[in-house]
Amino acid sequence: MDIGFIGLGVMGQPMALNLARAGTPLIVFNRTPARCEPLRAAGAAVAASPAEVFERATTVILMLADEAAIDAVLGRGTPDFAARAAGHTLIHMGTTSAEYSAGLQDDIWVAGGRYVEAPVSGSRVPAEQGQLVAMLASDDDAVAAVRHLLAPMCRETFGCGPVPGALLMKFSVNLFLITMVTGLTEAFHFADRHGLDQRLLQDVLDAGPMASVVSRGKAPKLVTRDFTVQAAATNVLENNRLIAEAARKAGLASPLLDICHTLFGETVDQGHGTEDMVAVLRALEARTDGAPVSVGPKEPT
Fold first, then answer.
1. Both ends of the chain: CA-CA distance in Å?
2. DSSP assignment, residue 275?
3. Contact 282, 293 (CB under 8 A)
4. Helix (H, G, I), strand (E, B) or coil at 9
5. Distance (Å, rounded) from C-alpha 291 to C-alpha 301?
6. Which of 61, 97, 128, 274 is most enclosed, with most CB atoms within 10 A?
7. What is the pTM of this model?
8. For residue 40, which phi and psi values (nearest 5 degrees)?
9. What is the pLDDT of residues 173-227, one digit of tens each?
10. What is the DSSP string of 247-265?
């Protein structure tokens, strides 16, 4: 049987390409058909509908934008759902709320399917390089059954216990990522407005103890004002919202995350949602220059 892959966006397309190039028998579907053409060229079959994917594949990877997209593909809440879940293993690699994932698992189990939560850490470039890090949650047998399948996409996989442990682990990782990149961006803004050589700042950071793969990837973009998307500001804002809501539900303070939430809301409100997350620089510049700042998303209460 083929392996199904639904959702060929900024992350999904390179992930699926790595599977196809590794010889995985793949059938793919995407709402925008043009995104399927590189997969067709790499030897994957292209389905005309999600239903065709589930007819031809017993294991289906979902890399979709949000909960509504997942429910639509699965036909959740309709008679189609039982047929698409029964006898199938569904691997959820996107990012949704932990509560949604736990509820989806319950529904899939009731319908006679298996479910693995498998969000990834990494952006477009690691996805292209097959260097993502996956966090897996489900029962031990289900996790063991899918590890080999993820190898062409992920350099490492980590078991995180039962659902929704993998998503909560990703939220922890992304909290650090969001606050780190925002801090890096603010540092370059500070240097720029003091008339410092930003390339020199990049060199100093690269030579010091705070250098990382992330800083070495994002600093050149800040120096050249390259906002080409690796991780879109809109997606970062949605991740931020999910993490903040999880923090509130657990009664946790998250002051650094909360200011990032506001800044990314301002970035998106200014029309930069499709740019890379370093476009948060635009919100910082607007505040410095005294431009009117629209109110970003309210902090979850």
1. 47
2. S
3. no
4. coil
5. 28
6. 61
7. 0.91
8. -60, -45
9. 999 999 999 999 999 999 999 999 999 999 999 999 999 999 999 999 999 999 9
10. HHHTT---HHHHHHHHHHH
Are residues 273 and 232 in contact, defined by beta-carbon separation less than 8 angstroms? yes
Alpha carbon distance 150, 26 (integer Å):
13
Q: Which two three-digit tokens encode residue 137?
A: 């949650």
DSSP state of 24: -
Cα 62 to Cα 16, 145, 181, 225, 279, distances in angstroms: 11, 16, 27, 33, 28
Please indicate whether residue 218 is annotated as part of the active site. no
Residue recorded with tokens 């036909």: 75
Alpha-carbon span 290 to 240, nearest angstrom: 25
Q: Locate tokens 């999910």: which residue?
A: 242
Tokens matching residue 208: 């010091």
Q: DSSP characters for 1-51?
A: -EEEEE--STTHHHHHHHHHHTT--EEEE-SSGGGGHHHHHTT-EE-SSHH
Cα 41 from chain centroid (whole Å): 25
Residue whose C-alpha is closest to residue 296's, from 268, 256, 266: 266
| Tally of residues, the chain | 301
